[in-house]
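Lab notebook, page 48
Experiment: co-folding of the full assembly
Goal: obtain a model of how the components sit together before planning crosslinking
Operator: M.T.
Materials (sequences as entered):
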Amino acid sequence: MLRYLIFAVWEAAISLWRSRVLNLLAVGTIMFAMFILGSFVLVGINLQKITVNWRDQIQFNVFLADDIDQSQIEAVRGTIEGSMLVKSAQFISKHRALELFGQDFPTYQTTVNALEKNPFPASFQVSLIRGTERAQFDELRVVILSREGVEEVYYDEEIFKRLDFFIRLIRLAGWFFGSIMVTSSIFSISNVLKLTFFTRREEVDIMKLVGASRAYIRGPFIVEGILIGLLGSLLGVSLVYLGHLLLQTYVADAEPFLMASLEPVFLPMSWVFILVLAGSLSGFLGSLFSLHQFLEEHISYQ
Amino acid sequence: MLRYLIFAVWEAAISLWRSRVLNLLAVGTIMFAMFILGSFVLVGINLQKITVNWRDQIQFNVFLADDIDQSQIEAVRGTIEGSMLVKSAQFISKHRALELFGQDFPTYQTTVNALEKNPFPASFQVSLIRGTERAQFDELRVVILSREGVEEVYYDEEIFKRLDFFIRLIRLAGWFFGSIMVTSSIFSISNVLKLTFFTRREEVDIMKLVGASRAYIRGPFIVEGILIGLLGSLLGVSLVYLGHLLLQTYVADAEPFLMASLEPVFLPMSWVFILVLAGSLSGFLGSLFSLHQFLEEHISYQ
Amino acid sequence: MIHFYHVHQSYQRNILALKDISFDCLRGEFVFLTGASGAGKTTLLKLIIREEIPLQGQILVNGQNVSSIPVNKIPRLRRAIGVVFQDFKLIRGKTVFENVTFVLKTLGIDLKERRKRAYHVLKQVGLQHKTNAYPLELSGGEQQRVAVARAIVNDPVLLLADEPTGNLDPDMAVEIMNLFSKINRRGTTVLVATHDREMIRRMGKRVITLDKGQLIHDTGSQMQIEET
Amino acid sequence: MIHFYHVHQSYQRNILALKDISFDCLRGEFVFLTGASGAGKTTLLKLIIREEIPLQGQILVNGQNVSSIPVNKIPRLRRAIGVVFQDFKLIRGKTVFENVTFVLKTLGIDLKERRKRAYHVLKQVGLQHKTNAYPLELSGGEQQRVAVARAIVNDPVLLLADEPTGNLDPDMAVEIMNLFSKINRRGTTVLVATHDREMIRRMGKRVITLDKGQLIHDTGSQMQIEET
Ligand SMILES: Nc1ncnc2c1ncn2[C@@H]1O[C@H](COP(=O)(O)OP(=O)(O)OP(=O)(O)O)[C@@H](O)[C@H]1O
Ligand SMILES: Nc1ncnc2c1ncn2[C@@H]1O[C@H](COP(=O)(O)OP(=O)(O)OP(=O)(O)O)[C@@H](O)[C@H]1O
Ligand SMILES: [Mg+2]
Ligand SMILES: [Mg+2]
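Observation: model returned without errors.
Model output:
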C-alpha cells in the first residue's frame, strides 16, 4: 500500500513537472475559479457585517404615560431589559425629552421654552441586538404594550421593512450566487482537468496495452488532479487575501470617520479550509471522471 | 479572399464537429464564465436600481421664518423648483405642520391643541432626483439658505452619509468585481481554448510539414475559437436570462407590497451585446495566443 | 500456448478482417506470421492480447480463454506477453528507461533492479547510450529497438512482434532475430509478423501465411513430436 | 536540385548527427540514401525541407538556400517537395481523402478536381477503397501507402521518401518503387532513404551511404553527362 502511494505520488510529481506549461494552464484556471469563489465569500461576509451593523442601530421608543410612577417604570424597564432581543435600553425622562427636542430642532428652542406644560412623554429608547427578526420584534412589542403605563411602542416601520427586505435580498443573492459559483467552479475545474488529461489518452492506452493494472494507471492521474486542485485553490485564496489587503488600504484611506466598525475582515480560517478542500476535492473528482470518460473508453477491458 | 474565408469556416465547422466532446468542454467552461459575468452584471444593475430607488426618497426640509410673506415664499419655491436636482417640492404651511405633528404623535394631540401659538414653522418638503451627489446637494443647500425668509435647511445627515457610503461601496465593489470577472473570464476562456488546441499540436505540425501556409493553418483555428467563444457566451447569457426569470418569479411571490418598483430588470440589450462580443473576442484572442504559444513553437519556421 | 478456433473478426459490416482462423501454437515454438499489407496480421495479434474481442470463435492464450476472462485479469495476461507494436507505442512523455521499465515499476521492483534490467535489455538492442533520451529524440530504428527492449524486459512467456525490423538495417535486423531466437531457446514462445521473406527463409521456422483475412498456408509445427 | 556543402548537424553537445556532408543531386535523378539505424538519413531529409536548420554549412534546394530563405517562403518550398515520412505523419482527425488533399484544398483547388486527383493517386497505391477511412482504421502498410499518395498528389518537383516500404510486403514494395520510377521518369527528382539492400540492388540507381553521420560512399551521379 505504501509502495503504491509512493509510486502514485512520485509519478504524479514527475508528470506535473514534465508537462508544466499545460498544468500551469489548469492551475491558473482553477486559481481564478477559486479566487472568484473566495472573493465572493469575502464580500458576502463583509456585506453581512455591514448590514448587521446597520440593523444594530435599529431602535424603537417606548412612550410612557404622564402619570406613570417609579415602580411602574422599573417594571417596564425589567420587561425590556429582560428580553433576549434587547441590547440596550436608555430611559429618557420628560425633561430630557424636551431638552433633546430643543437640540434637534434649535429653531423651536424658544417656542418650546415658552410652553407651560412639557408636552413630551418620558420614554425608553431601546436598541435591538443584531439579527433580530421582524416577528420576534412584534412579539416583544405586544409584551411591552401590555405593561401598565406604556402608551405606545413607536418604531420606524419603513426602515424596519426595508432593512429586513435588504437583508433577505442579500441572503438570497448569497445563496443564489454562492451555489452558482460553487457549481461552476467545480464544473470548470473538472473541465480543465479533463482537457489536461485528454492530452494523455495515448499514454494511458499504451500503459494498458503493456499490462499496467487499473490502480497503477489511475493513481498518478488522481494524485495529479488533487495536486493541481490544491495548488490552484491555495493560489486562489492567496489572491483573495491580496485583494482583501488592497480593499483594506483603500477603505482605510477613504472614509476614516465612517469606517471604525466597517473595516473589512478576511475570510475566517474555516472558509479558507473549505475553499482549499473544495479545490482538492474537485481535482480529485475531476480526474476521476475524466479518467472514466476519456482515458478508459478507448481501449476498453470490457 | 472569399475562398479563404469559406475554407477557414468550413474547416472550423468540420473540426468542431469531429472533436465535439472536447469542444463541448470548452464551450461549457466559457458558458459558465460568461454566466457568472452576466449574473454579476445583472445583480449589479438591479442593486443599483434598488439603491437609486432608496435615494430617491431622500428628502430635506426647508424651514421658513414665521414672518415670511407670500412673495418671499414664491421666491423660495422658484429657487427650489428651478434646481435640476429637485424632483418635487411640497409646501407645508404652519397650520399643516401642526396637523401633521398631531398625526405623527397622536399622544400629543391634546397637548398640541392646547397650545396658544402654533410653534411649528412653515416649510417646503423637497425630494431630490435620483443619483444626486452629496456635493451637489450641499451647493443647492447654500443657495436656498441665502434666500430671504429661509430659517434652516434640515436633512438627516446620517441617512445621507450612509446611503452615500453604501452606494459608493456598491460602485466600488462593482468595479472591483467587474474587472476581476472580466479578466478572469478572458483568462479562463483563453486557457480553455489553449488546452483545446494543445491537443492538436501534432495536426498543426503535420500541416506545416506538408506545406500549408500560415494563414491556412491559423484561419480555421481562429474561426473555431471565435465560434466556441460565441456559442459559449450565447449560452451563458441565456443561462443568465433563465436565472433572471427564476428570480422574477421568486420576488413576485415573496414581497408583492414592497416590490412594485423593485421588480428585477434583465440586462439591457447593449450589455447582452457586450457580453457576446466579449466571448467571441476572447475566443479570437485565445486561439490567436494559443496558436502562437503552443501550435507554432514546435516546428518553427524561424 | 495459443489456440485459435474458427475465429472471425470484422471492423465494418460485411467486411471480415479475419475469416475462420484456426491454428495451434505450442509452448516454446517460434512462428512467423506473414501476408500482404492488410492481410490481418496485426488484427490477429490484437486478439491475442485482448485489445480486441473476436466477432466469433474462441481464443486460448496460455490456458486462458481471452474472450471471456474477467476484466481485472487482463493486465496480468498482458504482462505475461511481451509485445513489439508495429507503431512502437512508446510513451512520448517518458524517457527510454521509463518506457522500458514502466511495468516493472508498477510491480514494485526497486530502482536498482530496474536499472540493471533496463541496461541489460538496452544493451542487447544496442541502445545503452540512449537510456535517458525521449522517444522523439530517437531515429525510427532506435524507437523500434526500444519497443523490442520493452517487450523482453519482463521475461514474457509469449513474445509477439509486429514487423519488428521494418525500420532496421539488415545487420541490425539479423541481430534482433538472433536475440528472439535466444529468448525462444530459453522457453519463450515467439510469434513474429513480418514481410521480410529473406529473414523467414534464413530462420527456417514455422510460417503461417494470411491472405485477405484467411489462413492460406501453415508450414506446421516443428515441435509436435517433442510436446506430445 | 539538392546541393549540400559541408553540412554539419547536431542535437546534443559534442555529438554530431551529420558530419561534413557534401553532395550534389541533379534534377531528375533517382538517389537511394542508405546506412545503419541512426546513421542520419532522416536528419538529412529534415534539413532539405527546412524542418531543421544545419549547425554549419549550406544547403541549396531547387535553387534556394534553405537555411536563409524568409519564413513566409517556407510553405511554398515544402509544397514543391513531396515527403513520405518515416512515421507517416497522417492527421488522425482527417480521413484518408482529407489527408491526401489537404494541401490542394489550401491552394483553392475545387472538390471535384481534388476527388479526381485523390482517386488517381490512391488507386496507384491500391487504396481507392479506403478513401473515407481514418488513419487509425488502417493497417500499418495501408497508412504508409496513404503517406505515399499524399507525397505525390501535388506533382512535386522533388520527392523524398523515408523508408517508404518498411511496412509493405515485397510485392507491394516493388510496386511502390516502380511508381517512384515512373514519377522520376516524368522529371521528378527522387531521394529514397531505405535499408532494403535487395531493392537498391535491383533498381541499380545512385546510392549514397551514411555511417554514423558521415558520408562514406557515393556511387555518383549517372546523369552528369546529360545535364552538362
Ligand atoms: N480499427 C479498424 N477499423 C476499421 N478497419 C480496420 C481497423 N484496423 C484494421 N482494419 C482493416 O483490417 C484489415 C487488416 O488490418 P491489419 O492491421 O490486421 O493488417 P496487417 O496484416 O497488419 O497489415 P500490414 O502489414 O499493412 O500492417 C485492413 O484492411 C485494415 O484496413
Ligand atoms: N530530435 C532529436 N534529438 C536528439 N537526438 C536526435 C534527434 N533526432 C535524431 N537524433 C539522433 O540523431 C541520430 C541520427 O538520427 P536519424 O533519425 O537521422 O537516423 P536515421 O538514419 O534516420 O536512422 P533510422 O534508420 O533508424 O531511421 C540518432 O542517433 C538519433 O538518436
Ligand atoms: Mg500490421
Ligand atoms: Mg530515420
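Interpretation: Residues C 41-42, 86, 162; D 139-140 surround magnesium ion (ligand 3) (CB under 6 Å).
Next step: discuss with group before ordering constructs.
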